[in-house]
What does this fold into?
Amino acid sequence: MITVFIGLGVFCVSMLAGLLGLLLHRVLPDHHRGTETKDVVRLVQALIASIATLVLSLLIASASSHFRDQTDGVSVLAADIIVLDGALAHAGPDAVAARAGLRDMVQAAVDGLAVERRSDVTLIDPATVDAFYTAIAGLRTTTVAQHAAQQQALTMAGRLVQARATLMLRSLNDGTQWPFLAMLVGWLAIMFVAMGLFVRPNLTVLMALVTGSIAVSGAIFLILELSDAHVGILRVSDTPLRYALEYLKR
It folds into this structure.
């Protein structure tokens, strides 16, 4: 919800800046309304608009990349879980308990996601993962094929531990670059002041300011939503984990 309030805040800042420009228009001395003055202000406005556009594009690209990395991480994790279960299925009868443990871990993660409304597997207890890895290492194999399956299972279990740690570390960094964001809002405010500086207020001008404020606040809202993949409206889907769980229950 904080992203919604920040988006509304950016909308209010933009609108207030535009209204301030309209207010300054009324008190602006006549010798400040000349063509040369307008040209200079418009050149500065174009310069700030170019910089703001570049920074906004970079922030959107960075947030989108962060969100995509989180999405790919969950999908890769679900695929590793399916491959791990297949390896355990060929590791001998002693692996039955390990497969049940894997199924329980994934079930706990999915149930935790439903309660916490998060899209990662950091809810899995690290001690449970370590015990699961130890159980696989202790499997007794009697054939070469079972031993090979055990080694593959150990490799996949190691990747599972690594993937969990990676997702946990990524979740600690929401990807939002606050200094850039604050500077961007300041530039946008300056632009909106300049927009209303040399025009008389009317309904068309007010509607244009409202439309522009909605556009920039929507862009900031989108950046914040994509930067934090665990909360908010745009969250990484847990569908891959649910599919993996259904596969394990077959």
Q: What stands out?
A: Residues 2-27+35-248 form one domain. Confidence is low (pLDDT under 50) at residues 114-123.
